[in-house]
Amino acid sequence: MKKTIAVLPGDGVGKEVTKGAVEVLKAVANCFDHEFEFTYGLVGGEAIDKKGMPFPEATAEMCQQADAVLLGAVGGPKWDSNPPHLRPEKGLLAMRKALDVYANLRPVSFSPSLIDASPLKREYVEGVDFIIVRELLGGLYFGEPRGRNVEQGEETAVDTLVYKRSEIERIITTAFEIASKRKKKVTSVDKANVLESSRLWREVAEEVAKKYPDVTLDHMLVDSAAMQLIRNPKQFDVVVTENMFGDILSDEASVLTGSLGMLPSASLSMAGPSLYEPIHGSAPDIAGQNKANPIAAVLSAAMMLRHSFQMEEEARVIEKAVEQVLSAGYRTADLSVGGGHFISTAKMVEEIIDAIVDDSAISKIMTCYS
Ligand code: NAD
Description:
The protein is an alpha/beta fold. Helices cover 43% and strands 22% of the residues. The protein contains twelve helices and twelve strands.
């Protein structure tokens, strides 16, 4: 199968981890006789430096022409004091809007060999396996009016939390579709005791639930959800929530697994190319040191194969290879509990590729003899 993948390495460790993910994708293409063509574009701080804007038109066009987009991360101290329209993160929001990626999926599950890297006790995290479905194009991050004013001599800032019924309906439907293929439980997170937008959210969730009689729907207030993620994370299957609540809760959930460097994400579009990226940022503190954990980016590539290209077997081969390498004891610095021996970004990628090649060689031999 032939596919074009737009690669946007971005800033900081984004460059290092996407390089690793591309190498893994090339290895998969080789083993499974696919043809992946990679096109490269600028986004974030580097795009500001070279093109004067965080999401240049050429990058937007390149993404639209691709079958899927692989992003590293954007940002860094160099651009922190830029005006709002020249911030790297502005490029991210513009890209999400341009690609119309409304549903951000963040799976949270554990490699059995990493349980001890979690800050929680083993009995709380063993068996945790849920997915956060975050609405990505509405709410506070996009609502108008927004901005700063001076009113009656005092400086004022405003952001607007607004949702249309149709926006809520499509994200809740996505959550139910996912839950119907998993443990059949949706937890919808809102702040319906205070916010009008959350009351509409809750009503729509109830309406959508009627179409999925075999899936249970629970509602949880966001403050309680923040606590329950730590107290009893095993209770969750699919958590669906609005943009800002999802942003915060998914970072909280990522800590359960021991490192931000482990968690992938997919941002799905209804029609065009979808976007895949690790959930971490550009990690300026370790950028350029060959120290970053590439696993979140590699697992994001696996999500791309599964969700955009329907290559389930290929996605599983990557996930299995990652598990194998971790259970063999290989760790990047972020995972080395107590400062034990660790390997570089490049070495981790090499180990994952070796495991993929070995696995597919074995499957080919098994197919010949079966
Ligand atoms: P961060 O995720 O970059 O880093 C937080 C901590 O996690 C750091 O200690 C970092 O070293 C560590 N870390 C992150 N990724 C890692 C990896 N792959 N391997 C090992 N350790 C890893 O968050 P931050 O420090 O708050 O933000 C840094 C910059 O990234 C900021 O400019 C921020 O705006 C940007 N950011 C971008 C995105 C994105 O592009 N999607 C997301 C979050 C933050």
